[in-house]
């Protein structure tokens, strides 16, 4: 087995990407999106996965009117209303 020894004489470390609890939690909301009531709220990772957009594209679409504006639920929590998202997605699919 070959080892990559750098100038330090130590084997090279492989970088592993750790997923935070925030990123692990969104698939559950995404899986249940169709059963959520219109009054429910979802966070940005769900919107990104639902639309297939990056974070920057989500905000571009909000600014150009393609997605509804999120609601500020508290100082550190911003979320989108499910009913408003469904309406925007339906309008997009209807074009």
Shape: elongated
Q: In what order do the strands lie side by side in the largest sheet?
A: 1-3-2
- Could you give the count of β-strands? 3
Helix content: 40-55%
User: How many H/I helical runs?
Assistant: 4
Mind sketching the topology for me?
Blueprint: H1 21-31, E1 41-42, H2 44-51, H3 55-63, E2 71-74, E3 77-81, H4 82-94
Antiparallel strand pairs: 1-3, 2-3
Helix pairs in contact: 1-2
Give an account of the 3D structure:
The chain has 95 residues and is of the alpha+beta class. The chain is built from 4 helices and 3 strands; from the N terminus they run αβααββα. Helix 1 packs across helix 2 (44-51). The protein has one domain (28-94). The chain has helices at 21-31, 44-51, 55-63, 82-94, and strands at 41-42, 71-74, 77-81. It is elongated and about 60 Å long.
Note the main attributes of this structure.
alpha+beta, 3-stranded antiparallel beta sheet, 4 helices
Brief characterization of the structure:
By secondary structure, the protein is α+β, with helices and mostly antiparallel strands.
């Amino acid at each position: 087995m070959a080892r990559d020894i750098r100038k330090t004489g130590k084997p090279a470390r492989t970088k592993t990407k750790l997923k935070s609890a925030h990123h692990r939690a969104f698939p559950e909301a995404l899986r249940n999106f169709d059963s959520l009531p219109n009054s429910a709220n979802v966070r940005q990772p769900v919107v990104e996965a639902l639309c297939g957009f990056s974070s920057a594209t989500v905000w571009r679409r909000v600014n150009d009117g393609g997605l509804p504006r999120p609601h500020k639920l508290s100082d550190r929590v911003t979320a989108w209303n499910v009913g408003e998202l469904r309406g925007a997605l339906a309008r997009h699919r209807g074009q």
